[in-house]
Prior knowledge:
Layout: E1 3-5, E2 19-35, E3 38-45, E4 48-52, E5 55-59, E6 63-67, E7 73-87, H1 94-101, E8 107-110, H2 113-131, H3 137-155, H4 162-166, H5 170-180, H6 188-191
Parallel strand pairs: 1-2
Antiparallel strand pairs: 2-7, 3-6, 3-7, 4-5, 4-7, 6-8
Amino acid sequence: MPDIRTRNNAHWKDPSLPVYAARKKLRGYYGLHWHEFFEVELVVGGHGRCVLNGKEYELNPGDIYLLTTTDFHEVFSDDVEVLHIAFDQSLIASDLSEKLITCDKNLFFSLDRQEYVKFYSLMSQLAVECEKDLEYKLPYITSLLQCIFILMIRKANLKNDADIDARKSHIAAAVLYLELHFRENPDLHTWG
């Protein structure tokens, strides 16, 4: 059975902060699991492989992937080094997070040099900001995350379907809710 990673068991430095960022080495086998938070990892060194929602990918420098709360994955690595960002969905504008959650493909990309530099710069800034106690820390981090998400949406070539979104039915909203909360154990008190 897949394992769940939460803020409390995922090496989150400060569980009270809705974001964690660090440069880290992935060594060994990380068994099939999912997260209660979003995660973006940019491979900066080494090689390995991961299985994301049943599809296998080689991990090489310049690869980036986004994991939402609905993704299952596992990693096999001896020496992969990543810039890692884990964050609560509440930090992302709902239209952006909905676009990525409802995307019908894995968000795994091999970046060209120019794209890599953009992502590396944003993610490095975010990691530094997480380490320091500065004024306006959370708004700055949130803005950096929005930029990262927009670049991911552009890379995935996901269109801004404003007309389709405007016609979205209540049934579609209910299905999205179920997709986001399928692991929860609902009861009548929660809904009543």
